[in-house]
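# step 3/5: fold
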Amino acid sequence: MSIHRSALLIVGPLVLMAGFYFLIFSEAQEGRASSNAVRLSAPPEMYKSPPQIKTPPPKSLLQAECEAQAKVMQQRISIPINVMVKTPYVLIGDYEHDTLDALYRKTILPTQYALNVSYFDSPPDRPITIIALSSQERYQQVAHDLDRRKTGLYYGYFQANEMRIVLNLTTGSGTLGHELTHALARVDFPGMPEWFDEGLASLHEQCEFSDEQNQLVGISNWRVQLLLSALDRNQLPDLNALVQQTRISKEREALTYAYSRYFCLYLQQKRLLSPFYRKLRTNQETDQTGKLTLQQLLNVDDLSEVDADFQNWLTGFRVNSKR
C-alpha cells in the first residue's frame, strides 16, 4: 500500500466526521433562531394586555326610584295598565305604550320646557307619577284604589305627598297642564301661596304656545263667567282679599280659582307674571302671601289701587264673548 493511499484512509474519515458535525450544528443553530423568532412575534398569552370590558353606566338614583315607584303602582291599581318610565316621570295608563310615549313627547316634554323657560329653575329630584285613564269610570276606579277618593266633577287631581297626578285624559290635555304645573312648582317653589299656586295652574288648563314655541300663553276659558257674574252682583272681593287669604275656603273655591286664574292672566298680559313668580320665590321668607312683591311690581302703595283697572280689564271679556 502506498503512503498516499494510507494517508487518504486515515484523513478521509476525519473530514467526513467534521462535515457531519458541521451540518448538525448549523441546523441546531437555525432551529434556535427560528424558535426565538416565534417567541418574539407571539408572546405567551399571559403577557397579553387584558381585553377592554365596557361596563354600563351606573343607574341613577332617580331612575331607580322611578322604577321602584312603577312597581308599587302596578300593585296598587286594580285595572289592567301599562307602565313606562321616562325619568323623572312614571307614566301609567290603560292606553297602549305608543299612546303613553306620544303623551310624553307631544305634551309633557313641551309643557315642562315652556314652564321652565318662564318659571321653574329646579329640575325634578323625585319621581313624578302621571296616571292617564281613558274613561270616567276607570278614572274613578283608580282614584278609589289609590286614595279612596270620590272624584265628583273634577277630571284630575294632584296628590302632593306622593307627587302623583291622576286624570281622565278623555277630557283633553288641559287638566294635565294644570296638574303638571302643580307638580313642577312643588319642586321649584314648595312655599308658593295657595292662591297663586292655583291661579298659575288654572292658567295652564287653557293656553297655547307662543310664536317661538317656548312659552305658554293663557287664553280665556269658562271660568270668566264666574267672575263676570260676581262682578254684576257686586260680590267680587278686592285683590287684597284674594292675595291675603292663607287657605282657599271650600265655599268659595270655584270663584277663587277663577279670580286667581284671571289675575295671573292680567299679570301675564302686562309681562309681569314671570317676574312676579321669580321675585316672590326670592322673597318668600319676608312675603309669604305675595302682597308686598305685587305692590312693588305694580308700583302701588296698596293693591286697592289696582282693583278698578283689573275690573275694567275683566269686562273686556264680556264684550269679546258677544262677538
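# step 4/5: annotate
The two ends are 150 Å apart (CA to CA).
# step 5/5: archive (pending)
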